[in-house]
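re: ur question from yesterday

yeah so i grabbed the chain u mentioned. its 503 aa long if i counted rite. heres the sequnce exactly as i have it in my notes:
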Amino acid sequence: MGIQFNNIPGAGLVAPLFAFEVTSGGSYQSESRLLLIGHKNAGAAIADNVPQAIGSAQEAVAFAGAGSMLAEMARVAFLNAPVQETWIVAAAAVGVARADTIKVNSVPAGGGVGTIEIAGEPVQVQIAAGDSVNTVAAALSAAINAYFNPLTGASLPVTAAVATDTVTTTARHAGAIFGDLDFYVPTTIAANAFAGAALTLTNTVAAAGDPDLSAALASLGDDPFDWIVSPFADATNIGRYAALLNDTSGRWAYNRQVYGHVFAPSTGSTSALTTLGLSLNDRHLTVLPRIAAAGNATPAWLWAAGLVSRIVPWLSDGVTGNVSRNQTGLVVEGVKAQRNRATVPTYAGRNTLLRSGISSFIITADGRVAIDKIITTYQKDANAQPDETFRDIQAIGQLVAILRFFRAQLSYEHGQKALADENPGGLGSLSTPKAIKATLVHAAETLEIQGVLENARGFADRLVVQRDTESANRVNILAPIDRVNALDVIAANARLYSQYRAA
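ran it thru and got these structure tokens back, copy pasting raw so excuse formatting
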């Protein structure tokens, strides 16, 4: 094979010279970004609709403000994926901010400790002997505004003000997503001074409004964002996700190839979630279920951030086969299970959700939230026939890993080359369809070793690389990929004998 130079001339050098030019042989390393979409606090440092890289939960607080939707999403994301490259983008909140009142009706004469949970975070108030309801209300308001969990870094999604015996809380952001924000007086805490009739909780202003994410989504441009978490699953924003990611002119289009996948939570009954799933059919969208009226301590935005960030390190790992693995049982940090366990979907319920394009979760024996199976909403092909090709989220991660690796190998070996049918002189400046095919076969063999695709030999047999009959500068490729599949079901027949029969 001839030696190719990029800078040293092949002819015309007469004066003595010992010369080396330095070029890269190509060493591929995959990269994957997690993007969190949400709201920032008023006056926060970050601007709306400008993606910002963050290296820690503390940095998210500095950009978006303590207790903001974005800061809290980042906190939970880093609990589950501590070294994942993570970005945030703020979208303007619109609509009406939820407001609630907490009226202190009575306090124990001898004092004690009162606890109320807001969005799953325990707010405690020390009550001295003889404290009045007004004093306790003022202390509760101050505790809400000052709340910070030093162990988890959590802050509250509400602010508080007090008047006599009543605390009024206001959501930090407007929007319907705050509609089921959880206020709960725990009864399992011994001698909780707020238990019983001590407090009256009232929702005084209903949350309303869905943000317009158009500008935030457009701000992504052609920058790589593989995994996108958005708390908003209203029909209008779901349509915007489809526009962002479509295969014709969106991020998956042939002329862009920057990819991406949106995860959004939806809260409802199993029936309502099933209906939603059946109305969708997009391999670029995943709906994460959250059961309504189930005592959901964790807000929807944290639920989504937690579930997605737990699986993203695996989905982004196309080197050790993690991208292909079954994810069932991965425990999600920073989120709480619903209090009403009776509403947790059974196996039959989860199976129904999954067959309807909705993902599923489980609650472990010790009461923790874990992944069951994450899927896309894709269910039927263009001819409305059932198709599970793009159902599993692993397929999306594998596809991104495979396509990027193929493109990188083709670029390393065939970039800045001329195209010929044959290369009898073995010139480094020429590529042929045969050489391109060899590159792809070798890439497939590497990906097979890395557990991303299987049957590399079958790939080689089916791979077609042809020079275009109309354009002499173009090569056309048919690359039939057989991906590795997650081991989801083991079916066994345990046949019992009193005694084995004689052979």
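noticed a couple things. The first helix runs from residue 57 to 64. also Residues 419 and 431 are 5 Å apart (CA to CA).
anyway ttyl
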